[in-house]
Amino acid sequence: MRAVGGRYSTGFARRSEAFGRRALRSSRYIYVYVCYLFGSRAQAVTRLQKLLAGAGLGSRRAIEEWIRAGRISVNGRTAQLGDRAAPGDDVRVDGEPVAVPTVEGAAHQLLIYNKPLDEVTTRSDPQGRRTVFESLPQAAAGRWISIGRLDVNTSGLLLFTTDGELAHRLMHPSGEVEREYRVTVRGLPTPDAVQRLREGVMLEDGPARFDRIEAVPGAGADATFKVVLREGRNREVRRMWTAVGHEVARLSRTRYGPVELPADLPAGQWRAIPIEAMAGVVANTR
Question: Do residues 149 and 161 lie in contact, with contact meaning Cβ atoms separated by under 8 Å?
């Protein structure tokens, strides 16, 4: 009986082992098939604020506030903090569809633009004026965000990026990123007026001062200066000069952080630069 039992036990073990191997192969086939169907999408699903920041819609912090306010929906449902989305999902802000990157982890871009006079720093203008965005190339992923603004009567350096986080850090007042301008004012300011601008003048939205102010040599009835400040309030340079009794005749931005406007870049033209050009500034604003 032991011999028979032994042969029975051995046969059962072999059949069990064969069944196990077949089951393992089947489970592997099922796993591969599931990955084939859903794997690429699973890898592309991204937290909503990260996805929209990568699309150049704003900083993650700003987008979180939009989510809390109920301004964002995904596939017809109001988004909640922690929600995720993927390229191809119907993502809307205030009911308007937005394009999200079709390539996960697409490299962000940075370019400089020499803004001419009479262009506006908006995506559209009710008066039909030309916008700076009309002169830019198509972004590889997401959309262009202007790092700061220049009013219609100011020319010079504008930076654009597809990285919402980068734009937020470079524009936020806590970053104290330097902006340099070349400004020509009507008349000849007195030393006292220049000193007031160094020490600070009171504007309707608070005090303001130039970190540096340097006269540019020249003859004539007007005076030209290089000025540096670390914030970007609306028409701030013009209002500061008005506070000391001088009207701005010409204003052009020549530098933003470490990036200077190239002398050989014509007005209305752009140039791509490595996004690493701002790496040091971003590290100091974290």
Answer: no
Q: What angle do CA 106, 108, 110 make, to 5 degrees?
A: 155
Per CATH, which fold does 110-173+263-285 belong to?
A: Pseudouridine synthase (3.30.2350)
**What span, in angstroms and rounded, lies between the C-alpha atoms of 134 and 110?**
16
Locus of tokens 């988004």? 79
CB 162 within 8 A of CB 145: yes
The CATH number corresponding to 46-97 among 3.40.50.720, 3.30.1340.30, 3.10.290.10, 3.40.50.1970 equals 3.10.290.10
Using alpha carbons only, how large is the chain's radius of gyration in Å? 30
CB 188 within 8 A of CB 241: no
DSSP secondary-structure letter at 138? Answer: P
The model's pTM: 0.71
Residues with a known catalytic role = 151
CATH number of 178-256: 3.30.2350.10
The DSSP code for 131 is B
The rounded average pLDDT for each run of 10 residues, N- to C-terminus, in the chain (286 residues) is 47 52 46 38 67 74 90 93 85 84 66 96 92 93 87 96 84 88 97 97 96 91 96 94 97 96 97 84 59
For residues 63 and 49, the answer to whether their CB atoms sit within 8 Å is: yes
Q: Which two tokens stand for residue 161?
A: 């990026």
Number of helices (H) and strands (E) in the chain: give both, helices first: 8, 17
Question: What are the phi and psi torsion angles at 26 (to 5°)?
Answer: -65, -45
